[in-house]
Specification:
about 300 residues, Rossmann fold, single chain, alpha/beta
Length: about 300
C-alpha cells in the first residue's frame, strides 16, 4: 500500500540538513519510521548503520539539495524511528526497510549506503532490481572481514561485547558505543552538539538494545553464520546486475580492507572504485564532499566503471 500525504506526519528537520528539509514519520508494521526529506524528482535514499541515525548524513544531504528527492531514513530502533519490542535481528531490520520502501512506493532509486545500511540496501536492491537506478557504497557491511584486518582495539572490544552480560554492561549500561567508539572513530572528533544529537535517541539502557545486536552480528572470521548467509545472498546480484555501482574508499578506513577492495573489483559488475581521501568509518563526518561527489557522479552518469 502506498502512503498518502495525510498518513505522513511532517515538521521542519534539523537546521543541519539545510533549508526546507522536512522531518517525516509514518506508521509502518507495528511501529513508526522516521526520515528526513528534501526536494523532488527521482529518489536518493541514504541508509545508515550502527550506532547512528539519519543525522549522520546531514552534511552529505545538504550538499545534494537540488539533485533529486533526498530521503535519509532512521532504521527501526534508531534516531526518531520507533523502538518496538523485537529482537532487532538483521531480518527484523529488513522487514521495516522493505515496508518503508513499499509504503512510499519508491522507484528509480539511487541508494547511498554505509555500514549495515549497505546490507539492508543491497538486499532490497536484489529483491527489487527494477526499482534501482544506482548504488553508492561507503564503508559498507557487505561481506565477511578477517579479524587480522581490523584494529586490534576494536577486536578486543568486540570480544568483550560477545560475552553474555559483559556486552550488556559495555553497551546498555556504560553506553560506550555512543560516548567512546563513535566519536573516537571520527578523524577530527565530534563537537558537543553532534555528540548530543547522536546520544539523544538512546537515553536509557533499554533504548540501547538495538545498538548491542549489530556488533554481535558483524561477520568477523566467517562468524556468525547467520550474517555470513544474509550477505552471501546478495553476491550473485552484485556480480550480475548492470546497475551502476560505486565503492568510495577511505584512508585508513575500517571495514573496507585491501582484500575487500580486491574482492569488489573482481566480483561486482559495473563497479567504479573511487578514492574518497581521509576517513575512518563514519566517513559522512570525515569526508561528506567526497560522498556527495560520488552521488553526483552516478546521477550525472559520469562514472567510469573499472569492475567486471
Amino acid at each position: 500500500m502506498t502512503a498518502s500525504e495525510d498518513t505522513i506526519r511532517s515538521a521542519s528537520a534539523r537546521d543541519e540538513f539545510g533549508p526546507d528539509a522536512q522531518s517525516n514519520t509514518i506508521d509502518v508494521l507495528d511501529s513508526t519510521l522516521h526520515w528526513v526529506e528534501h526536494g523532488d524528482g527521482d529518489p536518493v535514499v541514504f541508509l545508515h548503520g550502527n550506532p547512528t541515525s539519519s543525522y549522520l548524513w546531514r552534511k552529505v544531504f545538504a550538499g545534494l539539495h537540488g539533485r533529486g528527492r533526498l530521503l535519509a531514513l532512521d532504521l527501526i530502533g534508531f534516531g526518531e524511528s520507533g523502538k518496538p519490542d523485537i529482537d532487532y535481528s538483521l531480518e527484523d531490520h529488513q522487514r521495516y526497510v522493505d515496508a518503508w520502501f513499499d509504503a512510499l512506493d519508491l522507484r528509480d532509486v539511487t541508494l547511498v549506503l554505509q555500514d549495515y545500511g549497505a546490507a539492508f540496501g543491497v538486499t532490497w536492491a536484489r529483491r527489487h532490481s527494477d526499482r534501482v537506478k544506482a548504488v553508492v557504497l561507503a564503508e559498507p557491511v557487505i561481506r565477511p572481514i578477517a579479524s587480522a584486518d581490523l584494529p586490534s582495539d576494536f577486536v578486543g572490544l568486540r570480544a568483550q561485547v560477545l560475552e553474555p552480560g559483559v556486552g550488556e554492561q559495555i553497551i546498555l549500561q556504560d553506553n560506550r558505543f555512543i560516548t567512546e567508539l563513535l566519536p573516537g572513530s571520527v578523524l577530527g572528533g565530534l563537537d558537543e552538539d553532534a555528540r548530543a544529537a547522536y546520544a539523544e535517541p538512546f537515553p536509557t539502557p533499554r533504548s540501547r538494545r538495538p545498538i548491542l545486536v549489530f556488533p554481535r552480528s558483524l561477520p568477523v572470521d566467517a562468524q556468525p553464520r547467520s550474517t555470513v548467509d544474509f550477505l552471501a545472498r546478495n553476491e550473485q546480484w552484485l556480480a550480475d546486475s548492470e546497475v551502476p555501482k560505486v565503492l568510495v574508499t577511505f584512508r585508513p578506513g575500517f571495514l573496507v580492507t585491501p582484500e575487500i577492495i580486491e574482492w569488489a573489483r573482481s566480483t561486482i559488475r559495473n563497479l567504479d572504485v573511487r578514492d574518497g581521501g581521509a576517513g575512518g568509518h563514519f566517513v559522512q563526518e570525515d569526508a561528506p564532499d567526497a560522498i556527495a561527489a560520488a552521488v553526483i557522479g552516478v546521477l550525472d552518469g559520469s562514472g567510469s566503471p573499472d569492475g567486471v
